[in-house]
Known about the structure:
Helices cover 37% and strands 19% of the residues. The protein has 258 residues and is α/β, with parallel strands linked by helices. Strand 4, helix 6 and strand 5 form a beta-alpha-beta unit. It is globular, with a radius of gyration of 18 Å. The two termini are 28 Å apart. 30% of the residues are buried. It comes from Leuconostoc falkenbergense.
Amino acid sequence: MNTIITDAIKNFYFVGQPIRHLKNEQIIEFELLLRNNIVSGFPKDEYAWMTKSETIHAKFLKHIVQEVNRILVDNPEIHFSLNLDQQEIEYETTFEIMKNISQENRSRLILEITEIPTLRRYGQYGETINVLAFKRLKKLGYRLALDDLTTGNNSLGNLEITIQYLDRLKISYRHLEKMMTPDEIVLQIHLLQSIVGRHDMDLVVEGVETESVSDNLQTLGVSLQQRFLFKTNACPTDCKKHVERNKRDQNDDHFRIF
C-alpha cells in the first residue's frame, strides 16, 4: 500500500492560474492548481483518495508542501495561493506539516479554504465550520481566503463566524450569472465590497471570461480578477526542463507550469 501511495503522489504537480492585480500590475500572483499525469484537469478522484484518511493525507501533504516550498524559493517575487479543503484542516497533522514552510515564505502564500464540507470531524465544535482551524492557521502566520463564497459550506453564515481570521474573499462570476440578473450582480458586488472594506480584506472575482465583464468589474472597483481571459507564459524559462507528464500544459497559455 505504501508503494502505491508513494507512486500516486509522485504523479501530482502544479500549474498556476494568474490572479491579476489591475491597480498594480507589478504584483504577480498565481493560484496553484493541482494536476497529475493520469487525467486532464483537476484530478478529482485521485485527490479524494489522498484526503480520505489522515495517514494517507499526511504523506500527500508533505509532498505538496515540498513542492510549494520549491516554487516559493524559485520564484521569490511572485505571490501564490493554495487550496485546502475543509476535511484537510480537520487533521492535526496538517498544522504540523504546514509549519515546514518558512515564516518568510508564508507571507507570500494565501491558503484558500474551499467550499467542500468535511466528511468526518476529528474535533468537537458546534458550528457548521471549523472556526478553530482558521484561528490556528492564522496563528501560524498564513493569510487566509474563503473560496467560492455562497457555495457549498462557505455560506454567508460561515463567513460571519470566520471573518476575523480572513484576508480575502473569492466569488465566481459564472456562479453569480447563473443565479442573478445583471442588476442583482451589481448589488451583490457592492455588498461584498462593503464587507471587505470594513474588514480590511481583498475581493477576488473568478470566472472572468470576457473583456466587457472585466471592464464592468473594474468600474465597480474590483481590481483583483482571475480566469481564462488572462493569459500567461506557460514556461517562463525553458519548457525542456519540465518532465514529459507536463507536456499537455506547455501549449496552454492560460496556465504557467511550476
